Amino acid sequence: MKIEIKEYIKDRMGDVLAFEKRLREEEDVWGWEIDEAYVQSVEKSFDDPAFQTSISLLAYVDGHVVGRIDSTMIASHFDGSKKAYLDWICVLKSHRHQQVAQNLLMALIQRWKCKGVDTLIALTASNDEAQRFYKSVAHSEMRDIGIWIDINQYEKL
After folding, report:
1. 98: left (phi over 0), alpha (psi -120 to 50) or beta
2. What is the residue-wise DSSP string for 106-117?
3. Do strands 81-91 and 119-122 pair parallel, antiparallel, or not at all (unpaired)?
């Protein structure tokens, strides 16, 4: 099986939508649907300068997306560092345990390294399969506890 890694650009959105559909056919655990609002939001993101520090990659096998990874840079004045946040990594269930996620992660790491980023931070999914993957990543350690703060739930301050 040959895995080809490509950047996720606007012209590949159809490939990603097909991937998202297949993802939901293979596993009904996602809890959100791909609707017109999602499509419009993602389309706009390709033209929004705020996303210039984001990297999104797709894994193709036989011309079809079988995995994706999405990340963004975190530049901080705290210590002058540039880190990156791993927001999403997902592989079709039918293509797991075939080095797809590892290929995506290595391609992402290579791109961040070229941009002067020295640390990739991820909030890990709690399911066993995801935990096994994250614990197998070389040169990494599990530490700290993540928290998600929903800013939209705060009243006007």
Report:
1. alpha
2. HHHHHHHHHTT-
3. parallel
Q: How many domains does the chain have?
A: 1
Candidates 87, 45, 49; CA nearest to 68 is 87
CATH of the domain at 54: 3.40.630.30
pLDDT tens digit string along 122-153?
776 666 766 676 666 677 677 766 767 776 77
In three state form, how does the secondary structure of 124-141 look?
CCCCHHHHHHHHHCCCCC
Give domain status of residue 43, yes or no: yes
Q: What is the pLDDT of residues 21-80, one digit of tens each?
A: 999 999 887 777 889 999 999 999 999 999 999 999 999 999 999 999 999 999 999 999
* CA-angle at 100, arms to 99 and 103, nearest 5°: 85
Q: Could you tell me the residue range of the domain that residue 108 belongs to?
A: 4-140
